[in-house]
Design brief:
The protein has 149 residues and is of the alpha+beta class. The chain has one domain. Strands 1, 2, 3, 4 and 5 form a 5-stranded antiparallel β-sheet that branches. Strand 3 and strand 4 form a beta hairpin. It is elongated and about 115 Å long.
C-alpha cells in the first residue's frame, strides 16, 4: 500500500520547487536590505571623513600662522556645505585664538634654549556633521635667558 501512495504523488516536485523559490526569494530580500544598510554606513563615514578633513585644513592654516600671528581663524568655506574655524563647536560664530602654553624645554637642547608651545583647536563641519581637532605645536628654539656670561 505504501508503494501505491508514493506512485500517485505527482505534485511533490512542484511543492519542492516552490519551497526552493521561497528560500531564494528570502535570500534575495536579505541581500538587498544588507546592501542598503551598508550603503548608508559608507555614506555616513564619508560625511564624517569630510568633516574631519575640514577640521584638518583649519589646523594646517593655524600651524602656518603660529610663528607670525596667533589670531583666530574665522569660519572659512571649503566647498558647498563644508566649513572650518578655530575653536570648538560652540565657537562657530566667533572663532577663538590659539592658546599659548608658554615656554618649555625640549630634549636635545640645554637649559639656555626653550620652545614656545601653542594649543590649536579647529572644528570642521560638513553636511551637519561636526568634528573637532586639538593639536599642540612647538615653535623655536628661542633663547631662554638662562645662559651665563
Amino acid at each position: 500500500m505504501a508503494r501505491a501512495i508514493l506512485r500517485e504523488e505527482k505534485g511533490v516536485a512542484l511543492i519542492i520547487a516552490l519551497l526552493m523559490l521561497l528560500v531564494l526569494t528570502l535570500i534575495g530580500i536579505s541581500s538587498i536590505s544588507t546592501t542598503t544598510f551598508e550603503t548608508s554606513i559608507s555614506g555616513n563615514e564619508r560625511v564624517r571623513a569630510d568633516a574631519f578633513y575640514a577640521a584638518e585644513a583649519g589646523i594646517q592654516v593655524a600651524i602656518n600662522q603660529v610663528p607670525d600671528n596667533t589670531n583666530a581663524i574665522p569660519k572659512t568655506k571649503l566647498k558647498e556645505d563644508s566649513y572650518y574655524w578655530s575653536g570648538g563647536a560652540n565657537d562657530e560664530a566667533s572663532s577663538k585664538s590659539p592658546t599659548s602654553l608658554g615656554l618649555h624645554p625640549k630634549a636635545g637642547f640645554d637649559s639656555s634654549w626653550a620652545f614656545k608651545r601653542f594649543q590649536l583647536n579647529s572644528t570642521g563641519k560638513f553636511s551637519g556633521t561636526t568634528k573637532e581637532i586639538e593639536v599642540q605645536v612647538s615653535y623655536g628654539p628661542f633663547r631662554a635667558g638662562t645662559e651665563y656670561n
